[in-house]
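FAQ

Q: What does a record look like?
A: Structure on top, sequence underneath. For example:
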């Protein structure tokens, strides 16, 4: 970072992007040698939500960008950036299945034109072992003619983004960070369900083995990569996982121990799981994204490699948060009193 000293966080509209920007600022405050590195948070447009999450941080510059319709402005915003975090976050409310690939493509083209040195791309989708893709997880979404929506699932679009990065940049310029096991995040959506029913809704496959990681660990890994020299992580592909693989019984056992009451698993067909999400959020795009993640976890079985890695420890020097600790930390969220 000799000629450029800015990290640009794309997709900072949502909670994940804002958490990464805050994490970068916290690391900067802890390490004086990082004082000259600027942090830019790229958002689609300013809202009360983004203002509350970001504008109170004096050392984070908010940059309004539209990579789909105004790519030239994105180029200008990236000319001082040495590193780009290409965050495509459907949970932010700013990215949908119709424009996720276009959003990423706009940023990729702008980064190439601006001469960005290092692109970090986080993806929640694990690499498939088999060459063919599994079928789209059924979501029971139909258009007015009764046909299934002909929109590529998020998983396919994230794979296309990876391909675009490899086509446009040297391997040493790109870092892929996979985090396929964000069960903790899903359980927060079902906090009321778990509190009232003392059951954890899971996809109806009692034999599936789950990877499990916490979003805070993903944020920590991303921040370490962005502050590290390009040579340390460029050209590498990581997979962030928690310390253990978990069966359905182990999930319920850890939740029961942490919450101090019996918590059982509730196996739901995909349509019922979709309705459970819709009961929490009415955003169909958000639900489609979450179901894509559940589909990978529960539908394709041996088509993906389920494993525990030590990548988080290698990147950050620390281990990840286990599921029991997560429930203990968020005990009030899953309390029967809410």
């Amino acid at each position: 970072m000799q000629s450029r000293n800015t990290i640009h966080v794309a997709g900072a509209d949502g909670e994940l992007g804002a958490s990464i920007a805050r994490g970068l600022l916290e690391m900067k405050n802890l390490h004086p040698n990082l004082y000259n590195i600027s942090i830019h948070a790229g958002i689609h447009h300013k809202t009360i939500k983004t203002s509350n999450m970001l504008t109170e941080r004096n050392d984070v510059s908010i940059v309004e960008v539209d990579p789909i319709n105004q790519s030239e402005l994105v180029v200008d915003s990236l000319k001082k950036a040495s590193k780009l975090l290409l965050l495509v976050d459907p949970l932010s409310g700013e990215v949908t299945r119709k424009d996720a690939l276009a959003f990423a493509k706009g940023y990729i083209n702008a980064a190439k034109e601006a001469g960005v040195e290092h692109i970090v791309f986080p993806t929640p989708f694990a690499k498939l072992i088999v060459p063919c893709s599994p079928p789209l997880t059924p979501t029971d979404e139909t258009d007015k003619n009764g046909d299934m929506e002909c929109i590529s699932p998020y998983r396919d679009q994230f794979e296309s983004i990876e391909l675009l990065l490899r086509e446009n940049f040297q391997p040493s310029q790109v870092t892929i960070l996979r985090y396929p096991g964000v069960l903790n995040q899903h359980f927060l959506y079902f906090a009321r369900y778990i509190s009232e029913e003392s059951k954890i809704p899971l996809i109806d496959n009692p034999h599936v083995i789950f990877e499990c990681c916490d979003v805070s660990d993903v944020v920590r890994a991303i921040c370490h990569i962005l502050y590290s020299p390009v040579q340390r992580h460029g050209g590498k592909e990581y997979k962030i996982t928690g310390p253990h693989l978990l069966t359905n019984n182990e999930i319920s056992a850890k939740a029961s121990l942490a919450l101090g009451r019996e918590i059982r698993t509730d196996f739901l067909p995909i349509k019922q799981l979709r309705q459970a999400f819709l009961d929490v959020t009415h955003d169909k795009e958000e639900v489609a994204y979450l179901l894509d993640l559940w589909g990978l976890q529960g539908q394709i079985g041996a088509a993906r490699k389920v494993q525990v890695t030590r990548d988080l420890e290698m990147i950050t020097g620390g281990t990840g948060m286990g599921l029991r600790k997560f429930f203990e930390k968020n005990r009030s969220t899953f309390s029967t009193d809410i």
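Q: Is there anything notable about this one?
A: The longest strand covers residues 38-43.
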